[in-house]
Amino acid sequence: MPERLEAERFPSVEQTAITRTALEKGVVRVEAQLVEGGAAVDEAHEVVVEEPLEIRVAGEPIALTMRTPGEDRYLALGFLFAEGVLGALDDVGSVYHCGRTCEERYGNVLEVTPGPGARLDVDALSRTKRVGLTQSACGVCGRDAIDDLLTRIAPLPRGARIDARVLGEAPTLLRSRQANFMRTGGLHAACAIGPDGTLLAHAEDIGRHNAVDKVVGKLLYAGALPRLSTPSEACVLAVSGRASFEIVQKAAAAGFVCVASVSAASSLAIETARALDVTLASFVRDGRFTLYTASDRVLIA
Predict the structure, then answer these.
(1) CA dist 91 to 34, 88, 109, 159, 270, Å?
(2) What is the set of active-site residues?
(3) Is the CATH code 3.10.20.10 the one for domain 51-152?
(4) pTM of the model
(5) DSSP three-state, residue 108
(6) Is the pLDDT of residue 5 over 60?
């Protein structure tokens, strides 16, 4: 079992007039001016933190993403699982932040080492044409990307069914844990929902892809990832933003039979969901949603 990370420390950045505490790494307070009616009023605003995270595997830098600090180990392992670098939690020996806690930039480089006798397949990133660098809003497009997924992601179970009421309540579950979004208005969210509507895992991040990786990483740590469950459950991945290729890719790799997005779906997301037999529901709001793929999986009263 990978060792748990020590409490992460992010020192204040005085030169930018930003203060932060160890318990609130995702939010900082900044000075601002509200201009209204020809007058300016000084205010203190809470804004979301955006910082780079470099992910290393056995000392080799393989990815760089802009993210909201906190729950970095889940983000890294969720990303590596979705990309096929690791296949199970036992593949991982340790996860830790590099450097010294007294250094200003401590916490922005994460090292992942293989477990005893395990090999982390970093070449998988090259095979999926995602070499070295990833961003919080990046994506891969084209039929080649879908074909790459079909070679490494097993089909999802067809017998699993989803209650339409569970999909309709997805936005409520997303909002129920968006504490920092309520403070800043600047974060995406993702959550895993069980077949009975239970909230299984939740995460916030400035990048919606990072939020999904954190959710996948949490389920992997808990031994509750749908892809690795026996039998696999009909779990839903809900996201606060739009459904893109990468969101569907990450969902299918993790074993979610359904993606529910509050916003729109892209054409490539729909094509990918159709190829991977993922149920894709978008514009999920106020009990309504639009089904684009595998609609027969949804039980509508």
Answers:
(1) 51, 6, 20, 30, 32
(2) 138
(3) yes
(4) 0.82
(5) coil
(6) no
